[in-house]
Amino acid sequence: MRPLVLALGLLSGMGAAQAGEVLANGYGVRFDERIETAPGDLHGATVGRISIVRAADQAPVWQENTALRPGCGAIAPVTAIHDSVVATCGHLGGRHYTQKIIALQGNMPLMASVDQFDAPSPVRVERDGSLAVDVVRRDLFPGELTGPHYFLTVYRLRHDGATFGFVPSFDGDAAKRYWRHYRATRQTAPAAAVLPELLASLLAAQAGKPAICAELAMIAAELQHDGQPRAAQGARTAMLAWLDKLPAIGYPPFDPLACPGIF
Asked: With bands split at pLDDT 50, 70 and 90, how would you rate the model's confidence at 93?
């Protein structure tokens, strides 16, 4: 059965009530708002409910009450990815977005969730048919970085005999997205202001662009002329410090010996 998206009072504003339903592979998937009350609570809290029913007889298959409210801005509460896979997207009061992939195969659906924090982006189908999504995280080094610093990680859905879930991806296809993120970040501010983000993107892009040494050399040269009293060795020391820290938040390691003459 081809997926059919049914608009059920779907409104674009995050403050408006949102609901959505998708029919796929003989099942209906809904994501509705509901009001949750507690003793002494006069108004209740607006939260959500995700439910799956058999399309033929509306028999319930699965249901989850969630703190998430339906919808992620331009991303609908429920989206058909292909014939047997749908994605739900919800938010916590207009921020902290979460997507859930539901595979409607067999007797029980398979599910995997990924948090997208403050920057939702749609699930996409890659060239090999796998599903991927971009996740931009911040506040990863509290006490060391002030102000918002955004770190991109591409997550790919792994579906094999042991795993159905999102895992970080640093393959050649993902590397292209990291490289674009690096180039965009380079345009936003001097290297000294976004050094951790730049280095994180370069580490992540190594599979698709092995020769990152030239970029590292340009960053080092810029750091020496950013108005700060940094000597050449000081700039390289600052870069090495972050290159050593970034694998702790999931980025691939870097071998300084791969770029002789820079470190």
From this structure: confident
* Per-residue pLDDT tens over the stretch 157-200: 998 878 899 999 999 899 999 999 999 999 999 999 999 999 99
Query: From CA 212, how far away is CA 218, in angstroms rounded?
Result: 10
Residue 244's CB is within 10 A of a number of other CB atoms, namely 12
Q: 23 near 7, Cβ under 8 Å?
A: no
* Strand partners for 45: 36
pLDDT digits (tens, 9 = 90+) for 45-58: 899 999 999 999 99
Amino acid (1-letter code) at residue 146? T
- Please, which residues bridge with residue 206 across strands? none
Question: Which two tokens mark 195?
Answer: 């050094």
| Domain coordinates in residue numbering, the chain | 1-119, 177-258
Residue type, 50: I
Contact indicator for 75, 51 with CB cutoff of 8 Å: no
Per residue in 193-225, pLDDT (tens digit) is 999 999 999 999 988 665 688 899 999 989 887
Q: What is the DSSP string of 208-255?
A: T----HHHHHHHHHHHTTSSS---HHHHHHHHHHHHHHGGGGTPPP--
Average pLDDT, the chain: 86
Residue 75 DSSP code: B
The two structure tokens encoding residue 131: 């599903």
Q: Looking at residues 130-153, what average pLDDT do you find?
A: 92
Report the SS3 class of residue 181. helix
Strand ranges (E), 144-214: 151-159, 164-169
Predicted local confidence at residue 262, as pLDDT = 79
- Of 104, 127, 102, give the one whose Cα is nearest residue 50: 102
CB atoms near residue 12 (< 10 Å): 10
- What is the C-alpha separation between 166 and 112, in angstroms, rounded? 7
